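Proteins fold reproducibly. Take a sample protein:
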Amino acid sequence: MKQCCEYLRGLWYKLRMMGIPVVGPALIYGDNQSVLCNTSIPDSTLKKKSQSIAYHFVREGAARDEWRSSYVNTHDNEADLLTKVLAFGQKRIQFVQRLLHHIYAFDARKWRQI
């Protein structure tokens, strides 16, 4: 989460340097509820020193409304297609359709296992 927020802050800085206005907070979606709870609720207790150092940065950005974190169900998380090996099936077809919907209109009946 900290790496994501550091990347966002750097991207915003670069966009502003090029004269592109950045309006509103960035939306960060995740499927780990404990991480999202620690980043969005200031009263949550962190158990390790390394966690408290990393999440201090994330909480600070959330308090300044630079980004907002939200939960997405594991079955609807499209990032899984790019980070995990998914077996061929309906779940994989739906992820590909959602990711590439603007490039090509998919027909699930044409997909078949090779």
